């Protein structure tokens, strides 16, 4: 029943979710109620903002990056937006080394995004493809699905490298 409330994206759904979690904590006791509230609050998705750890889905050599700044947005980055990130984990023989500051394009985001036809797209994880200052990908392959919204944001090269376009 709580998952139904968590899947709605309107303000009413979120306010009901907050009331539901408050009622659960009072009914179930403090320790079990807090665990339920944490479970329910994990269902809400947010923008990619500072200190968000993202998975790298290309063969540039990096495994994980941490977002330093989201470019062109006050709240944060969404699908197709460019971010500045710091490499946290890297392969030893890759082009990109640990600690290097890089640019990246968000190709998968856990926050849902509406499409023109009324459908919504969201992914299970936050993923990024590393690019240079001109916007060209550093790697030569892109793993996993990427959304076709990247075409509107002028990242056609990433779409050509991807194996699956969602």
Could you explain how this protein is built, in words?
It is a single chain. The chain is α+β, with helices and mostly antiparallel strands and 166 residues long. The protein has 2 domains: 2-41, no CATH class; 53-165, Ribosomal Protein L14 (Beta Barrel), CATH 2.40.150.20. Helix content is 25%, strand content 29%. It has 4 helices and 9 strands. The chain has a 5-stranded mixed beta barrel. Helix 2 (11-28) runs antiparallel to helix 3 (30-41). The chain is globular, with a radius of gyration of 18 Å. This is 50S ribosomal protein HLP, mitochondrial-like. It holds the Pfam family Ribosomal_L14. Belongs to the universal ribosomal protein uL14 family. Keywords: Ribonucleoprotein, Ribosomal protein, RNA-binding, rRNA-binding. InterPro entries: Ribosomal_uL14, Ribosomal_uL14_bac-type, Ribosomal_uL14_CS, Ribosomal_uL14_sf.
Please tag this protein with its features.
2 domains; five-stranded mixed beta barrel; 4 helices; alpha+beta; two-stranded antiparallel sheet; 25% helix; Ribosomal Protein L14; 166 residues
Q: Give the overall average pLDDT.
A: 78
Order of helices and strands: HHHEEEEEEEEHE
* Shape assignment: globular
CATH topology of the largest domain: Ribosomal Protein L14
CATH class of the largest domain: Mainly Beta
Low-confidence stretches: 1-31, 33-42
- Name the strands of the widest sheet in spatial order: 1-2-3-4-7
Q: Count all strands and give the number.
A: 9
Q: What class do helices, strands and sheet pairing give?
A: alpha+beta
Rg on CA atoms, Å: 18 Å
**What is the rounded distance between the termini?**
29 Å
Largest sheet: 5 strands, mixed, barrel
CATH superfamily of the largest domain: Ribosomal protein L14/L23
Number of domains: 2
